[in-house]
Amino acid sequence: MGPGLNWTATAVFVFFMVLVTVIGLFAGRWRKGDLGQIEEWGLAGRRFGTIVTWFLVGGDFYTAYTLIAVPALVYGAGAIGFFAMLTTILVYPFVFAVMPRLWRVSHRHNYITLADFVHGRYQSHWLALAVAVTGIVATIPYIALQLVGIQVSIAALGFHGSAWSSDVPLIIAFLILVGYDYTSGLRGPASISFVKAVMLYVVVLVAVIWIPAKLGGYANVFHIAGQALASRSTKIPIILPHAQYLPFATLALGSALGVFLYPHLITSLLSSSSGRVIRRNAVMLPAFTFLFGLVAMLGYVAIAAGVHVARADDVIPATFQQLFPPWFAGFCFASIAVGALVPAAIMSIACANLFTRNIFRQYVKKDITRRQESAIAKVFSLLVKLGALAFVLVGNPLYAINLQLLGGIWILQTLPAAVFGLFTRWFHRGALFLGWVTGMTLGSAMAWSMALRTAVYPLKIGGVKLPSYAAIDALVVNVVVAVVLTPVLNAMRVDAGSDETTPLDYITEPTEGGKRDLAATPAPISDGIG
Amino acid sequence: MTSLERGEARRAGFNGWSFLLLLPYVALLWVPFYAKSQPSLWGFPFFYWYQFLWVPLTALLIGWVYWKTR
């Protein structure tokens, strides 16, 4: 990267940051609700329709860090990096089948978090605590990585050298984030997500049309990238080699099943106005996936353009800087920073919701009012963000990457309690809890044995090599434990707990316009037959 | 009409069409089927354009199931 500050790029960058700050701070007035209530601050009153939800979930799911890390992975490791694209296809049938049920039961019982649902379903505060803590711990390093995304884009403007000049811009961006999160709640990132989507579409479409045209078309990009990859010491072919089939497929599946269990995505989905809105979005959100696939392609574009970087995370900024005029490079960097602000805000709101509802309310102050909940959540969301900032400024960003890798393994271990629970109450709450403990322990141990460098574990069963994503291996054991122990605990007459939900809660949409659907209140079964 | 029946009338459902949602998993997780370079399309090796093709296909499948289970 060139020496000194790039003034044109910086001016464009600053313009867009000011724009989103103003939008974010005024967003609290949008579809105004009482922000002193946690349902308003932390879920925007469950009022977002199909279009707003599309922007919000899109902005939340395709995070800035992903947009930096995935091309970096493709640049460094070739075809296997495309597992991320597979993930972003395979999530949507899952979201379509599962999440409308979660929305309906949450709306019916005023659940704000996934752990609220688990608590209501199993009447087990331990199981709910497990889900809440897993969510928070998996998300904090993810917030730190969004700040890393901002840091990378600021550094690309030329702010580097002394700690003073590189950290101050990041702290300003951080204060913007804190400001609009505190004042506007979920409405802040929701309104900024419109700006994010438009900017990203412009960047990606220009990049994928303009750059290959400059480099002689995609055939040439694949040709040069293929030669370059093969001539490296690792000799990676451009088509996925046989040995990577299973890691590729399990990484894609494990991420696809796990990613929408992250608190920030649950929060985005629950803020929509009906299960139908979620179903429609499962049809429409793949439009972002197409874009995302093209972003992954930029890893090959960077190789073909002869971009060389010391740190893999710098691939995308370096590519933009090398191939675009300064003003458009500034626009690209701003899109990454804006792209980081949206998910970072939702992640900290989601962690705050979990802490307030499932830890503070459960263990500290049971008779908390909705107004106090909102106040606690605002403070906790600030603490979460400060923690993430400390990670980036003081700690080694590598820790955040390592923890994020563990987070992906951990979050999938909440699937049996949360997702199976949406379809059946067959499982014993104790069996689910022990399954979770086993999955967490095993998954962490597998990742630890690989020194946290990769989540792919060289599994061997009976001499057959099954190198696979540790999250999937741990999930299999987790489910086996839950299935085996359920009849055992039932036979031992261990209290299985009650269930405050009814089958109708999962399938009944609220009537149009009405806040609560009275017809959905549980009716005696004889009523239906007779 | 009883309250249960009213609930049933509005239920967002599940039927045989829902099994179509499994198709993308089969098509994309069976990697040997598409981990090859030919036939290429507009310069994209098969491995890559096949994945891009499944983006609109998955959206269409989900859209179809949405339509059939309304």
What's this entry about, in short?
With 530 residues, chain A is an all-alpha fold. Helices cover 72% and strands 2% of the residues of chain A. The longest helix of chain A has 39 residues, at 326-364.
In helices, the fraction of residues of chain B equals: 40-55%
- Our measurement of the CA-to-CA distance between the termini of chain B, rounded to an integer number of angstroms, reads 21 Å
Average of per-residue pLDDT values of chain B: 81
Shape of chain B: elongated
Mean pLDDT of chain A: 85
The residue ranges of chain A in which pLDDT falls below 50 over 5 or more consecutive positions are: 513-530
Number of helices of chain B: 3
CATH class of chain A: Mainly Alpha
Spatial order of the strands in the main sheet of chain A? 1-2
Rg of chain B computed from alpha carbons, rounded to a whole number of angstroms:
18 Å
Largest sheet of chain A: 2 strands, antiparallel
- Written as H for each helix and E for each strand, in order along the chain, the element string of chain A is HHHHHHHHHHHHHHHHHHHHEEHH
| CATH topology value of chain A | Sodium/glucose cotransporter
Which key terms come to mind for this protein?
heterodimer, A: 530 residues, mainly alpha, Sodium/glucose cotransporter, B: 70 residues, 3 helices, 54% helix, elongated
